[in-house]
Specification:
Length: 378
């Protein structure tokens, strides 16, 4: 398995680039033309190079988010612009006419250098407020429950190794196998289970290793096992499945020391190594989209008349950063809305909702992706 640093860096930028630059991700460099202005030529060139970097990789971040998060981005992402530009030349220069320098540059942006910048991922995790992860797996060998879990252990070690906050294993051991089995196929029940342990994301795993064949070599038995694993990640506040991956791995072994159980476990370990990387790839892509682009937040309104519901919708639409409001459900005085928001305002969205002039609201509760408000009684 690749090192933690290389893996995280790869996911932070290469996987993110795949969202909007699938064709460009295969290249190590990208040449762009950008302009900049300033009170001196050096300042103008510096700003042009920053613009070049934003063209090279900043297309992952919406222009609206760039404006709203300007300080954050300049301090945390583009603070080392010169390190990302391998070469550049000035194409146009107005000579500082009118007291303002204006230049246009052709710059080659090093995507390889960007892949090595771990700060982008660290920022992403911080912006997601260090999500807490719970892991629950069911594992079988030849149809029987595996007494010493392989997949569960591999996932826990991986996430802990990447400094995630993982729910204590001892807590999860309190869950009976029957309960875990029932919850695995039902995202809503799975989400409720995750919330019980204070998790933001619940990773559910299902693994099985089946004997493929047995042969003899030099008088000793040699076993062949194939392991298949399915992993899915569920947001616990909305019960939304954000990632599903599958993997398989075959292992062969045996002899005087290695038994069939050991071979089955090796097959499971190999499959676990494949699937955890795929899972994190998809999770990081979802988080990147949520933080740097747009994200859907569910808002539930209670105790509202029809007129108050209409006023609430208009109030939501007036919030800077809210891009779309969809009425999902209305049942008498209760209504639910899907609100598409720029990632930059998500942290403050509840405060912005409460600041709506009409109707007057009180916060009933909130999670990262769900806000509940109630109309105040007069």
């Amino acid at each position: 398995m690749m090192s933690a640093r290389v893996f995280w860096t790869y996911l932070a930028l290469v996987a993110a680039l795949a969202i909007v630059l699938p064709a460009a991700a295969q290249f190590e460099e990208r040449t762009v033309v950008a302009g900049g202005e300033g009170e001196s030529k050096n300042e103008a060139v510096s700003r042009a190079l920053r613009a070049a970097v934003e063209q090279g990789v900043g297309v992952l971040i919406s222009s609206e988010t760039l404006v709203e998060n300007n300080t954050l981005i300049s301090d945390r992402i583009y603070s080392e612009v010169s390190g990302y530009v391998s070469t550049h030349e000035v194409l146009e220069d107005n000579g500082g006419e009118g007291g303002l320098w204006e230049v246009k540059v052709r710059a080659t942006v090093s995507l390889a250098r960007l892949r090595e910048d771990l700060a982008a991922l660290r920022l992403l995790i911080e912006e997601k407020e260090n999500p807490r992860i719970a892991i629950l797996c069911r594992e079988y060998v030849d149809g029987g429950e595996l007494p010493a879990p392989v997949l569960q252990t591999a996932l826990e070690q991986f996430f802990l190794g990447q400094e995630f906050d993982v729910v204590d294993v001892a807590q999860l051991e309190k869950i009976k196998e029957r309960e875990a089995t029932l919850h695995y196929d039902d995202p809503i029940e799975a989400a409720a289970l995750g919330r019980r342990f204070g998790a933001d994301v619940l990773v559910l795993g299902e693994a099985s290793a089946e004997l493929g064949g047995v042969r003899e070599a030099h008088g000793l038995k040699v076993y062949s096992y194939t392991a298949n694993i399915t992993l899915k990640a569920v947001k616990t506040d909305t019960a939304k499945v954000i990632a599903v991956v599958q993997g398989s791995h075959a292992a062969t072994g045996g002899g005087a020391v290695t038994g069939e159980g050991d071979v089955a476990r090796e097959a499971l370990k190999g499959a676990a190594g494949q699937t955890v990387e795929k899972l994190m790839d998809k999770i990081v892509q979802v988080w990147h989209q949520e933080v740097y682009n747009v994200e859907n937040v569910e808002i539930v309104l209670f105790n509202a008349t029809t007129e108050e519901q209409k006023a609430f919708i208009e109030g939501l639409k007036s919030i800077d950063g809210v891009q779309k409001v969809t009425e999902r459900m209305v049942e008498e005085t209760t209504a639910a809305y899907d609100v598409l928001v720029a990632g930059a305002i998500k942290k403050d969205l509840a405060d912005k909702v409460l600041a709506i002039d009409e109707p007057k609201l009180t916060l009933r509760g909130k999670t990262p992706n769900r806000i509940r408000v109630v109309v105040e009684d007069e």
